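Hi support team,

I've been running sequence recovery on a batch of backbones for a student project. Most finish fine, but this one hangs at about 90% for roughly twenty minutes before it completes. I'm not sure whether the input is malformed or the queue is just slow. I've pasted the C-alpha cells below so you can try to reproduce it. Let me know if you need the job ID as well.

Thanks,
M.K.
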C-alpha cells in the first residue's frame, strides 16, 4: 500500500494554476480581476495569486499525509472559496489522483489495525472522524480479515496481560476485557483474546 506522496506530482501548485495566468484556474471565469481579501492573503491579492497560495497550502498538506475529500473541502472553505469553486477544485484533485477516499480508507485500516492494534470498531470511528466517504469506509472495514483482527487482538491482549500479573483472575479478566473493548474489538474477539492471554489458575 503506497504512501500518499507517491501519487503527488513534483509541483509547487497544481498544473492548472500558472503564475499570471487566469484562464484555467477553477472558477476563474467568474472572478477575473476580482480582489480577494481572505485568510493570510493581503488586501491587494488577486484571484490568481489567491488560488496559487491556496493550492500550495493544500498540496503541502497532501505531501505530509493523505487527506480525505471532506478534510480538503474544509480547508478550501476556510480560505473563502464558495461551494461551486470548492466542488471544481475537489473534482480536479480527484481526477489528478490527489484525493481518493477508498484508497485512504484502506490505508487507515492497515495502519490502525496492523500497526496500532485497533479493532474494527475503533477503526471505523477513525474513518468517520476523518470524514471518509461512508461507503468507502464500510467497504474497507469489510475487507478486514477476521483472522487478522483476532491475531491483532491476541497480540494486544498478551502485551497488556503482562501488566496485570498479581491480580486475581476475575479482576484481570475484567480489566483486560475493558481495555480490548476500548480498542474497538468486537465482543467475541475480546472473549477469545482474554481466554488465550490469561493463564488458567493452577496450570
Amino acid at each position: 500500500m503506497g504512501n500518499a506522496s507517491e501519487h503527488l506530482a513534483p509541483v509547487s501548485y497544481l498544473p492548472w494554476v500558472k503564475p499570471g495566468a487566469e484562464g484555467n484556474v477553477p472558477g476563474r471565469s467568474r472572478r477575473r480581476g476580482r480582489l480577494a481579501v481572505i485568510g493570510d492573503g493581503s488586501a491587494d491579492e488577486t484571484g490568481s495569486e489567491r488560488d496559487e497560495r491556496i493550492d500550495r497550502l493544500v498540496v503541502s498538506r497532501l505531501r505530509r499525509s493523505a487527506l480525505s475529500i471532506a478534510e480538503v473541502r474544509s480547508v478550501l472553505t476556510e480560505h473563502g472559496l464558495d461551494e461551486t469553486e470548492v466542488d471544481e477544485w475537489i473534482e480536479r484533485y480527484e481526477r489528478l489522483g490527489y484525493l481518493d477516499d477508498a484508497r485512504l480508507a484502506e490505508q487507515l485500516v492497515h495502519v490502525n489495525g496492523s500497526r496500532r492494534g485497533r479493532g474494527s470498531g475503533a477503526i471505523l470511528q477513525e474513518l468517520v472522524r476523518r470524514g471518509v466517504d461512508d461507503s468507502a469506509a464500510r467497504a474497507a472495514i469489510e475487507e478486514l480479515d477476521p483472522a487478522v483482527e483476532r491475531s491483532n487482538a491476541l497480540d494486544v491482549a498478551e502485551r497488556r496481560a503482562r501488566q496485570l500479573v498479581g491480580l486475581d483472575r476475575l479482576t484481570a479478566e475484567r480489566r483486560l476485557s475493558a481495555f480490548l473493548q476500548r480498542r474497538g474489538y468486537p465482543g467475541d474477539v475480546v472473549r477469545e483474546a482474554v481466554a488465550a492471554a490469561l493463564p488458567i489458575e493452577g496450570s
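--
Follow-up from support: It reproduced on our side and the slowdown came from queue contention, not your input. The two ends are 43 Å apart (CA to CA). No action needed from you.
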